[in-house]
Design goal:
alpha+beta, Alpha-Beta Plaits, 4-stranded antiparallel sheet, 108 residues, 2 helices
């Protein structure tokens, strides 16, 4: 059984592979950070690539409590590199005694 995080990355990769804007994609983990290597079609510019990445990420995050962190790394003559991460929200694990609105005591 996959976690929401793993399932989101799997869906994200499938959506990118089915995109008509990309000739080829490759997702790599380097030093524990996920990178997307994208070879776009001839007439596709950087803005269109970023819109496609956000669209695919939105489909992958649908129904899950994840947020997207995406940053442009570099452009080669043939491909673009982006760092794409899905972040899991942090939850409080104990009561700090400050009467917070999201106190762990108020959740069941």
């Amino acid at each position: 059984m996959r976690t929401d995080h793993e399932q989101a990355f799997h869906t994200f990769e499938q959506e990118l592979n089915s995109s008509t804007l990309m000739k080829e994609i490759e997702l790599k983990k380097i030093a524990g950070l996920p990178f997307a290597y994208l070879w776009p079609e001839a007439e596709v510019d950087k803005r269109m690539i970023e819109d496609a990445l956000k669209f695919c990420a939105a489909k992958a995050m649908r129904g899950k409590r994840l947020t997207l962190e995406m940053s442009f790394v570099r452009k080669s003559q043939a491909f673009y590199v982006y760092r794409v991460r899905f972040l899991v929200p942090q939850r409080k694990m104990f009561c700090c005694g400050n009467l917070c609105d999201d106190c762990i005591r108020f959740t069941s």
